[in-house]
Amino acid sequence: MSALLRLFAVVALCLPTFASAQDTAAPAPSANDLHEFTRLLADTRIQGWIADQANGAEVADIDARATARAQFERYIARTGARVQDLGAAWAASERAPEVIAQRWREQITPDRQVRSLTFVMIFLFLGAGLEWLLRQYTNPIRKRIEHGQIDTLKQRVYAALTRAALSLSALAAFAIGSIGAFGVFDWPPLLHTMILNALASIVAARAFGTVLVLFMAPYVPALRLIPIDTGLARALSRMLFVLFAFLLAHIALIDVFDRLANPDGMVHQTPETLAVSIGFGLILLAVTLIVIGLSFRAVKHHTGTTSRTLGRWRAYVSLLAVISFVLWLFGMYVAMWTVILLGGLVPLLRLLSMWVNAAFDRAIADFMAKIAAEPKPEPLETAPEGEGEEDGAETIEITDPYETYRPIALRLVRFGAVVCVGALLSLVWNLGIFDQSETPGIVQQVFGVLIDSAAALLIADLVWVWAKTAIDRRLAAYNPPVDGSAPGPEARMATLLPLLRVVLMVTLLAIVIMSILSSVGVNIAPILAGASVLGIAIGFGAQSLVKDVVSGIFFLIDDAFRVGEYVEIDQLRGTVEKISIRSLQIRHHRGAVHTLPFGELKSMTNYSRDWVIMKLEFRVPFDTDLKLVKKLIKKVGAELKANEEYGDSILETLKSQGVRRMEEFNMVVGVKFMTRPGEQWLVRRDAYQGVRDVFEANGIRMAERNVKVEIEGGETLTEEQRTAAVAAAQEVVQNKLPPGPIPDEP
Amino acid sequence: MQSQMAPVQAPTQAHQAQTRHGSSGLVIRALRIVSGLFLLAYVTSHLVNLSFGLSSIAAMDAASPYLSRIWTGPLTRPLLLLALLVHFALGLWAIYKRPTLRTNASDIVQLLTGLFVVPLLATHAIGIHMVQDVGVEFGYAQTVPLFWLYNPTLGLVQVLMLTVVWVHGCAGLFTWLRAKESARNAVLWLYPLALAVPIVALLGYAEAGRTVLIQSQQPVVETSVSQADESTEAAAEVAQTPAPEIPFDLIKQVTNWMIWGSVLLGVITLLARWVRVSMNTTEAVTLRRDDSGPLASSSALSLLDGFRKNHEPHASLCEGRGRCGTCAVRILHSDFPLPEPTSLEMHTLQRINAPENARLACQLVPTGGRVDVAPMYPATYTFHDEDVEDIPDEAAAATQVQVTP
């Protein structure tokens, strides 16, 4: 752990404040100290003094903020001093090696040197031995991972991670063995620095190598996470490793020379060490440029791209390296880190998005291969995995199981990269900017605002993209019902989702604006208070409106009605024609349109759900053959079912229920059928017609309302008397039976 | 199982009868293992002696007759020398015969450490023994100050030598053991031991050195010795025991002779190998294994080396020494007739009950053209797998099918 911290300090040696902050560690205060402290705090004199100090500090604070110009001047002065240092270093460069060598001889006798080397050998042997031992036991697992069958992306990631974990644990064994054994002994400071630097550099370089192997897997294509071919992976990982090793060696050596030149740590850098470190820096720059050139050549060679963009990127990266070097040379470490981080962000984002896209393409290809393999093999669909682009693009159109996730993953990765870079930048700026100033300068403030705003925007963007893709996907999947057919359950989503989208956008915008304002320094509390007062006022004023909207949302969620359904609400019936956010419009079958706010709806009846039973009655004379009736009705039912227009909509066809009741003059035969909602009217029409026809054909008469006038001793009536009697009966009947109401139906 | 093996035996034996031309491979293998084991036993014993330094230098000296000198007695010393010579010579011969030097990491380590052992060893072994032969008492009490105080460079060389020797010995031992199915449990227990022995020895060495160094910090009597600083071994020796005459020049001469001689031998071997390889005209070979496409190889490489060159994983527990038989393949097709198996290969093939058309990929060097093979064991195969039984069964079954018509 301490070694890692130390390494960190070494890495950050360009940031002296950071290193010193790491080195000084104070013991925790005791209970007594704390008691004393609280007693002092309670003292009024002390309080008064502290208050005075605080007032003074505030004034100083304002001063420090005001003098951006002074800061700038100081910066210029520092750079000037650095340039002078450089001049001195140039002058000293001739004798630098001798001076260093002399110091080296002064501090370390040859015997001591050799003995420490002996110890280092022993440590290395111990570390390597432990690692070897661990590897012997984990080798079967590693072999199984490397040679195993890997089909899906998930398996690949899992296997690669397991392998990396194995490598890292072996590396940890090495580090514990070597650095741990080293820590047991007492060392003179210079040797301590030297050996620790060497061991830590070895461990760090190997850790970097493990990470490279995790992503590039130069020798096991099945475990490769980055979509590049084997040759390129080998070349790239080799070159990146060399570059990193050089960087580490550079840092470790400069640290050692620094320690050598001024063992007390009094002076920052003597001209000699500066000269040497510049020499190393030049070598590092040369190595970097060579590696960049070779890497791009390898990319060009292995991917076969001939476009000019590659050349442009190469120029860009090389330029970045050169600029960083120049900034480092002039001691502008903060600017150097900023250039490296921000400049690196652009290609990093590009590479990451390419990577994510390729990963999705591969996952889709895997998915397609699986789909194609499962059912009957279709030669067109089975896209070979290696082929990639064109086949993938074709199959994507069929189904893309990851359509929603791709933009989210892209944003997420971008977000992560930007946040990491931002965090690093803020670390650099806060620690390294204008060393002495405790108070934040203007640049820092602006920078902080930018970081905060960028974070807020990125998060909002992430949420928005996710919601928008999800909503649009649902909406795109919704097909508006064709005329006449009943709408599916998605129909209500078509109503709700756009609303949701707008609400989300407004909310996100509000949040982002608020957080940007607050990071700029605007006090948003009054805005929030004002908004909430306004909200309450509007809420009270538009109570019924709010009620309508809210209950509407719940009606929609309950799926109580859909566009096109036939519903009854209180006394109003009709087809739902339009659902808005506040109200519902239903059209009566005679054309009248009713508008109902959702807040008014207590209960409603929906006639268009799932199925409808319709019952019909026929009146037949008492002497009818009921078995024949049953048979005939069954026949009609079969005919109805066979109808090609509405036959499919009949769930249970027409059937006789037998005699439902007896009336004064006839029997009532009940029949019923079940259809899908909306189809029952047509079926009923044909059922009536069919039954009447078939009855007539089979000599079954419908019972007709007739009046039998029985006259006692009527056998002897004359023709006139008979006529008169009939007329009288007619009159009675007509008066007795007024016409019934016409049933109300479409 | 018995019934399945019967048809296998007949053809293999017939095969063997044809090719009983010399069993030099087997003899060399046995010699190498025996000499190597003997040397390793000596080194282990010597290192255990060294670890007594954790207690005191006196303890080291007290244990030395039982742990170190017993190996260098009148009877054992010629034996030890012989073993060293044989092992070194066989190693050089193996390097000379190697088809390729680009093999796996463990082999490269074994090869390089093997080359460096003798030059590193020369000063230590010759110096101490020749001084002892003259009759001077030269135990640990004299050696440790020499290595830590008077000539630390020599001390560093000792640590290097210990590392190199031990790594070489362990590489050989474990490659040998891994190829033996019966040793599969023992290996697991030997690993920690193989680490513990040198580490404890090194710690003993360091502790003894520390004691000496602390003593030297105390008011010193031997200032004259420190002044005679550029202390070769000899200078220290003079200071310690001036009594009998020590032939320093002779020691130096012999040591130098041995160092340069062994280096020269190594260089000559590599050169000879280079000449041999460049003299041989190689034909292009195309390998086709059932799970991988055509792989480019050459007639200078064995099948196994061909797979390795193309980074195609292939089972081989003994790293291509023809011992374990896990690299065995069934030959499905070959454009040209393949060379007959050597007795070493026959022996191993017989042991694993291989079918008639099976060959060891590590021993078979095709002459050219296209060769189609099917591996008999999966690339991840180890003796620890419980499926040891299955695969030979399957192989036998395959043979039966081929033999019955």
In one word, what is the shape of chain A?
elongated
Name the helix and strand elements of chain A from N-terminus to C-terminus, one letter apiece.
Answer: HHHHHHHHHHHHHHHHHHHEEEEEEHEEHH
Structural class of chain A: alpha+beta
User: Which structural category fits the helices and strands of chain B?
Assistant: alpha+beta
Number of separate strands of chain B: 5
Largest sheet of chain B: 5 strands, mixed
Give the neighbour order of strands across the main sheet of chain B. 2-1-5-3-4
Radius of gyration of chain B (CA) equals 26 Å
- Average pLDDT figure of chain A: 79
Work out the helicity level of chain A. 55-70%
N- and C-termini, Cα separation of chain A:
84 Å
Question: Biggest protein-protein interface?
Answer: A-B, 25 and 26 residues
SSE arrangement:
The complex is a heterodimer of chains A (746) and B (405).
Chain A: H1 2-11, H2 16-23, H3 31-42, H4 44-66, H5 68-92, H6 96-107, H7 110-147, H8 153-184, H9 189-216, H10 230-261, H11 271-303, H12 308-329, H13 333-373, H14 389-398, H15 405-432, H16 442-477, H17 491-520, H18 525-541, H19 543-558, E1 566-569, E2 572-579, E3 583-587, E4 593-597, E5 605-606, E6 612-620, H20 626-642, E7 650-662, E8 667-675, H21 680-697, H22 719-736
Antiparallel strand pairs in A: 1-2, 1-5, 2-3, 3-4, 6-8, 7-8
Helix pairs in contact in A: 1-9, 5-11, 6-11, 7-8, 8-9, 9-10, 10-11, 11-12, 12-13, 13-14, 13-15, 15-16, 16-17, 20-21
Chain B: H1 2-18, H2 24-50, H3 57-67, H4 76-97, H5 105-134, H6 140-150, H7 152-178, H8 184-217, H9 223-227, H10 233-240, H11 248-279, E1 284-289, E2 292-298, H12 303-309, E3 328-334, H13 343-351, E4 358-360, E5 369-375, H14 390-403
Parallel strand pairs in B: 1-5
Antiparallel strand pairs in B: 1-2, 3-4, 3-5
Features:
heterodimer; A: 746 residues; alpha+beta; five-stranded antiparallel sheet; 22 helices; 68% helix; elongated; B: 405 residues; 14 helices; 63% helix
